[in-house]
Amino acid sequence: MKITSLRIISTDLKRMVRFFEQVTRITAQWYTDDFAELVTDTATQVPTTMPWGNRSLLFRDPDGNLINFFTPVTADAIKKFN
User: Is residue 59 a part of any domain in this protein?
Assistant: First the structure.
């Protein structure tokens, strides 16, 4: 799974950026007080293929939000997104 971009809006952006810097071990580039970016060539983790055909991983952020990163991988799942 290759993630091109992920945008997260938070009421405590500095805390959220610190968290993702720790998780990814990448220093964020701050462009304004309310916009930071973590630049990577790719982001990979070991995902699981779900019975309905999506390859997925779950991630919980510091605000307690559960984020599901997924991509369809089977023919039936790919059809749903076309």
Answer: yes
Neighbour-count burial of 54, counting CB atoms closer than 10 A to its CB (0-12 exposed, 13-18 middle, 19+ buried): buried
- Calculate the alpha carbon distances from 30 to 22, 38, 78 in Å: 16, 9, 36
**For the whole model, what pTM was predicted?**
0.56
Tell me if 58 is assigned to some domain. Answer: yes
| Structure confidence by residue, pLDDT tens digits, 66-82 | 888 888 999 999 998 88
Task: Identify whether 5 is part of a domain.
Answer: no
In a domain, 1, yes or no: no
Number of domains in the chain: 1
Interacting residues of 22 by C-beta distance below 8 A, sequence separation 6+: none
34 vs 41: which has the higher pLDDT? 34
